[in-house]
Amino acid sequence: MNALVPLPVLLPLCVTGLKLAIGPRLQRFQRFITLAVLGAVLVLSVLLMVAADRHGPLSVHLGDFPPPVGITLVADRLAGLMLTVSSAVTLLVNLYSLGQGMADRDDQTPVGVFHPAYLILVAGVSCTFLSGDLVNLYVGFEIMLVASFVLLTIGGTATRIRAGSTYVIISLFSSVLFLVAIAMTYSVAGTVNFAQLAGRLQEVPVGVRTLLEAMLLTVFAIKAAVFPLAAWLPDSYPTAPAPVTAVFAGLLTKVGVYSMLRTQTLLFPGHRLGDLLMLAALASMVIGILGAVAQTDLKRVLSFTLISHIGYMVFGIALAGRGSIAGAIVYVAHHITVQTTLFLVAGLIERRDGTTELTRLGGLARTAPLLAVLFFVPAMNLAGIPPFSGFIGKLGLMRAGVDNGGGWAWALVAGSAATSLLTLYVMAKVWNLAFWRDAPPGSEGEGRVLESAEDEPGDDGDGGDGGDDKDSAATGSGSGLPEPAGAVVSAGFLGQSITTTKRLPWPMVVATGAAVALGLLYTVLGGPLTTFTEAAAIELLARTPYIEAVLGR
């Protein structure tokens, strides 16, 4: 079974090479092999999760080189669960992207550019979850960074290039800081292998150990968009195509949270920066949700709720108890799925009505009841309404805070309750504006052509004839409807003009519905899920099973 551990990383990379060799040819075959490899990764992830639960952590030393020389990959309960959830989500998002590419009549871009970059991203995420040392954790981050920049800037429009550049600059800064932290760790411990560091860092002077902990936490907090290091996220994610935004919101920030979980429990037990983490968690929850309250665009609302709910996960890590770690793991799995689903729904709304600006939406509960259901269920899940999985995770975290009994813990319990109520308010606001109220005058109409991301509102072209052509396009099939204010920058893969339609592409609807069902599955399997995460928390805090699996003692 140990031989299966590298495959979630190797399979997407191998298929990426094959797809790049084929190029834009054999498009149906390429779609098939993309779905097939993502399905295979999901099956492998489930097998690794089950094996880790039954037999303990699985490890493999590539090339049979022992640590600290060789590359070590480890699959324990935490890694297995994260791999399974992320594999399921990436498979569904890929199906959604196929529907969007076909609807845009843009067959070459998804196959020739999006899918290879997407598979590289999947390999980077898997590498991060399985890494057994700091260097390969860094490599996983860099693989994701390269793929992320391609996906964020796909189409080369000015808005996407601007947002992608901000993302890359912030990511490069965190990468440099990560390299410095790795070098310092190696200089004081003589290794970067997690299992070896678990013992050697305890012999390092307290001041040096605290400095290393602070540097690594800063790196991972940037990746996870923890306040005050989250300013880059609301402007970067909403500009990308809907599938890209969805998978970024669901997965990339959780990679940072996972890294915090792994290092804080394995390398820095009884960490000295717990109070600082609690402050960051509280600030992320409160400031993030207040930012969401102030927004009127659905994608920006969801971006700020993403920042806010990262605070719940940091809350669990900061308390560092069995109950809090288990609650954080449940919440990570829940949030990956629910946040991805909500961004997929936002993409459907944009496809149907040409905008995600809430002031220009309305009446969707009457005109698109299926879309209303697809939004309502994950929205209530995100708000933590019983009996959804969001409630299970929040309840576990708040119980852990009460059991802790400290001043910061009680502040976080209060902040968690307030954030949940404000999240419910935000979701109710979106529901009332986009779904429940009557549609604003002039907002309905099928066949409206949305201008490309490069076009500015009110731009009538360079000449008289060009202006007439644009006016004709903007009204779309003679509907006489004005174009929504603001250029649509993420409806098409390339930011190209698209035509709105009330009949949404079935692969996009099916993928979104499956994501909603996956979120509900966590509720149905709430008992086994909490049992599994408690076992994972015990394993993380014990540290011994992980160390013995890697070092063989």
UniProtKB/TrEMBL annotation:
<dbReference type="InterPro" id="IPR050586">
    <property type="entry name" value="CPA3_Na-H_Antiporter_D"/>
</dbReference>
<feature type="compositionally biased region" description="Acidic residues">
    <location>
        <begin position="452"/>
        <end position="466"/>
    </location>
</feature>
<feature type="transmembrane region" description="Helical">
    <location>
        <begin position="137"/>
        <end position="155"/>
    </location>
</feature>
<feature type="transmembrane region" description="Helical">
    <location>
        <begin position="504"/>
        <end position="525"/>
    </location>
</feature>
<feature type="transmembrane region" description="Helical">
    <location>
        <begin position="301"/>
        <end position="319"/>
    </location>
</feature>
<keyword id="KW-1133">Transmembrane helix</keyword>
<dbReference type="InterPro" id="IPR001750">
    <property type="entry name" value="ND/Mrp_TM"/>
</dbReference>
<keyword id="KW-0812">Transmembrane</keyword>
<feature type="transmembrane region" description="Helical">
    <location>
        <begin position="240"/>
        <end position="261"/>
    </location>
</feature>
<feature type="transmembrane region" description="Helical">
    <location>
        <begin position="167"/>
        <end position="194"/>
    </location>
</feature>
<keyword id="KW-1003">Cell membrane</keyword>
<feature type="transmembrane region" description="Helical">
    <location>
        <begin position="325"/>
        <end position="349"/>
    </location>
</feature>
<feature type="transmembrane region" description="Helical">
    <location>
        <begin position="78"/>
        <end position="99"/>
    </location>
</feature>
<feature type="transmembrane region" description="Helical">
    <location>
        <begin position="370"/>
        <end position="388"/>
    </location>
</feature>
<feature type="transmembrane region" description="Helical">
    <location>
        <begin position="214"/>
        <end position="233"/>
    </location>
</feature>
<feature type="transmembrane region" description="Helical">
    <location>
        <begin position="32"/>
        <end position="52"/>
    </location>
</feature>
<protein>
    <submittedName>
        <fullName>Na+/H+ antiporter subunit D</fullName>
    </submittedName>
</protein>
<dbReference type="Pfam" id="PF00361">
    <property type="entry name" value="Proton_antipo_M"/>
</dbReference>
<feature type="transmembrane region" description="Helical">
    <location>
        <begin position="111"/>
        <end position="131"/>
    </location>
</feature>
<comment type="similarity">
    <text>Belongs to the CPA3 antiporters (TC 2.A.63) subunit D family.</text>
</comment>
<keyword id="KW-0472">Membrane</keyword>
<feature type="transmembrane region" description="Helical">
    <location>
        <begin position="273"/>
        <end position="294"/>
    </location>
</feature>
<feature type="region of interest" description="Disordered">
    <location>
        <begin position="444"/>
        <end position="483"/>
    </location>
</feature>
<feature type="domain" description="NADH:quinone oxidoreductase/Mrp antiporter transmembrane">
    <location>
        <begin position="131"/>
        <end position="415"/>
    </location>
</feature>
<feature type="transmembrane region" description="Helical">
    <location>
        <begin position="408"/>
        <end position="428"/>
    </location>
</feature>
<dbReference type="InterPro" id="IPR003918">
    <property type="entry name" value="NADH_UbQ_OxRdtase"/>
</dbReference>
